[in-house]
Amino acid sequence: MTTLQMSQEVQTRLHNRLTNGNEQLILDFDDGVGAYSKVGVCSLDVSFRFLVVDQQAVDAIYDETLASPLGPVLIKGYADNFVNEAPELNLNKFGLITLKTAAGVVDTNVEILDHPETVAAARE
């Protein structure tokens, strides 16, 4: 199993969004596929975002698990080629979460969607 490394700052930021113990952390490849993605990114950029959802509401499209310091993180299995070589999350100088691997930078602004209404709005 691939381990998603996180700086302490990223761990703290994500941990603060996990409030009731019934949430699942998802690293979503925002490509327009799945219940939480209303449209794919219309550019050549790769876009990832964190979703914090109720464990009972996890879409079946998230069928692969990454280990992390905060517990299991679900991803879309077909997106693992973006994160299968030593994935790491850090804050950049602007305070944005950056995802990089041994191959290079994958995404320079990994958002966190954690409010039920925000995640629900992403579905519409």
Automatic annotation (TrEMBL):
Pfam families: Fe-S_biosyn (PF01521)
Gene3D superfamilies the record matches: HesB-like domain
SUPFAM superfamilies associated with the record: HesB-like domain (SSF89360)
Record protein name field: Core domain-containing protein
Core domain mapped to chain residues: 4-114
